[in-house]
Amino acid sequence: MALSRVPGNEELYVGGIFTLRRKNILETTGITHIVSVLKYDFKDFEDWDKYEHLNIDVDDVDDENLLGEFERSGSWIENGLKEGRNGKKGAVLVHCAMGKSRSVTIMIAYLLRQNSEQSVASALELIRESRPIAEPNDGFLAQLELYKEMGCPRDIDAHPKYQRWLYQREVELALAAGMAPDKATPVSQTGPISSLPTDLPPTPLHSACTHHFLHPLSWMRPELEQGLLAGRLECPNSKCRGQLGRYAWQGMRCSCGVWVCPAFSLQKGRVDEVTKKDIAVHQVMGKDGFRTANVNSAETDGIRLPPEMKGKENL
């Protein structure tokens, strides 16, 4: 299967890299523009200068970022179809190694961009009508769904949902490496995320810390939804609006030396601390049989505290 024409009114084709060796097929189909979605040196192909060429240097792996290329490739394909030769419209070939995952992903993104009624599933089925092997990997499919959810924006880089997606990727990598992330993005507009690391080492210096670090809380939502990477956390009382602390999606270092990422901190001097002393009665087994025991409810109710707070105080 050298190349397959996508059903529709436009001259769109999907294929593998060996298609580029089929000069007669390229000429017969009138290909004028080629999008290559792989890492390859194309200088050994004959008559390569006959075609307008866009190269997207990516691997076919789930965590590769193709989402950031959707607008560049989409606008390039759109212009390629308009700017053919001798006054005729162009014909665009999008290829990868096999014409199965990367190239199909770019083609689906283009179809979504051009038709707001198209879904990822319907675009994929359209391509499969002529190319049954079409099958983007799971990571690319998720990126296509996010692209559709974003509304196929012309400025992907500035879109908050794209920034959040980049942030989540960066934090996962940074936490795995035990480092602060290089990038950061604001919280999801559908609700705060909770990503305070649970493996931070406890510190005996917590009593000297000047801040409490928390998971995002519901009252923080208005501030976090502004899409800023860092800012103030203010009292939710509209008559007060005093600064209680600050947040930084790129993280911040506590005065005790622990790095918290992302960081949602409250100044100790701006909040009241209450130590919960709720006592629950439980039956426990002793050497003389069952007996009742008073147990702190925070130890039995599954209350999650930041690591440096465990066993000390509860906000």
UniProtKB/TrEMBL annotation:
Keyword Iron-sulfur belongs to the record: no
Family: Belongs to the protein-tyrosine phosphatase family. Non-receptor class dual specificity subfamily.
GO cellular component, one term: nucleus
UniProt keyword terms in alphabetical order: Hydrolase, Protein phosphatase
Protein EC: 3.1.3.48
Domain Tyrosine specific protein phosphatases: 77-132
Hydrolase keyword on record: yes
Transmembrane segments: none
Name of the featured protein: protein-tyrosine-phosphatase
